[in-house]
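User: Hey, my collaborator sent me this sequence without any context and asked if I could get a structure. I don't really work with proteins. Can you help?
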Amino acid sequence: MVWAYMGLSVKLENQKSIDTYGTEMNIILNSYCNLKCNYCFADEYMEETVRTPGKSMDFDYFINDLLPKIKNTPVINFMGGEPTLHPQFNDIFTQTLDAMPSYTSLGLFTNGLMGDKVLDTLVNVIGRDGALKRKITFSVLLNWQTLDNISEKNHARCREVAEMLMRKNGYSITFSINLYSKNQDIETQCEEIDSIYQKVGLPKDQQYRIRVSPAFPIVGGESNVYLPIRDYPKLGRKMFQLLKRFPQMAFRFDCSFPPCFLDEIEADETDLVQRFYFHGFKQVPELDEWKTQDLYFGCADGSPMDIDSKGDCFNCFPFHEMQLGNVSEFKEVNSIATARMGARFLNNVFEKTEVKEPCKSCPHYMVRCSSGCFAYNFV
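Assistant: No problem. I've predicted the 3D structure and written it out in C-alpha cell form, which is a compact way to encode the shape of the chain:
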C-alpha cells in the first residue's frame, strides 16, 4: 500500500496484506444529525436533539463491550446520524485508534459540520505524527451537499473543514455525493469539489475519486426520496460530461454499480468507462471485456456490517428493519461472524425478492447485475 501525504508517497516496508472482504464494520454512534437532507434514507431516525434518550451509543457500552470485539477488524468506520455530534466522540475516536493494531484502517463518515474540538482532534490524527506514524490508515468521507439541503453559512463551514484537513493530508479525504434526482445539480457539486482539490494543490498527474451513492428506498420504513432505476442512465449521462470537463476526476460506487448507468454512453466516450470504480476499489473494465469476463456489479457480497447503538447488526440502512444478529452473540465480530450474518441477509432477500421492471427486461440482469440494490424489489 502506498501512503500519500500531500504529494509525498511513503511506502510502508514489510506491510502485511489485509483482506478486508467481509471484515469491515460501520459503527453507528448516534441517530441524530444537524442537517435534514430531503433524500436521506435515515430520515425517520434523525432526531432533533442530541439529548434525546437512547439515540446515542452509550460510552461505557462501547468501551467495555463493543470495542474489545471489533478492535482487530481491518476496517472500522464511524457513522451516524452525524457521528461527530456524539457528546463523547473525541474519547471514542481516540480510544479506538489507540486500541487498533498497525496496518488497519479507521474511517469517519461526516457531513463536515463539526465543532472546533472535533476538528482539532482530526487534524492531529490525520497528520504525520498521528495515524500515519502508527501505520494506521485514517480516512474521512465527507458528504458534499447541494444548496437544496444546506445553508450557505454551513456550506462555507464544510469547505473550511475540507480544506483544513486536505492541507494536512490531502489524500485522506474522499468527497461523497448522494444521487437522489435526475434533476439535481451534480455539476455544481463536482465543480466545487474539483475547485477544492485545485486550491490545495493536487498534483496534475493525480486522480481523485468522488464516491457516488444512489439514494435507495427504505424497506419496511417510512417512504423516502430515492432515485428511480429508470433515471440511472440520465445521471450517467451527466457523469460522462463531468469526466470530460475534469480530467482528474473519477467516480466510485461502494455498493452496487448498475451497468445501466452507462446505457447512454456515446461512441467517443468508451475510454471514460475505466474512470468508474465499483465495490469501492475495482476498476470497471473496458466495454469489450464485458463479454469475455465474469463480472458482477450487483450488491457487494462481503459488504460492511452495520452495528447500531444497541449492538444490533444489519447489512445496510435500507434494510435496517432486517436485524441479522447482535454482537452479544459473538466472542469477536470477525469474518466468521459477518459471513454468518451476511448469509442470513442474502437468504432473506433472494427468498422474498421478485425482480421488477425495468430490471426484469434488462440484458444485464442476472448476467452481471442482480437489479442493483435489492431494496428496489421491496417497494
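In plain terms: The chain has one domain: 18-378. You can pass these C-alpha cells on to your collaborator as they are.
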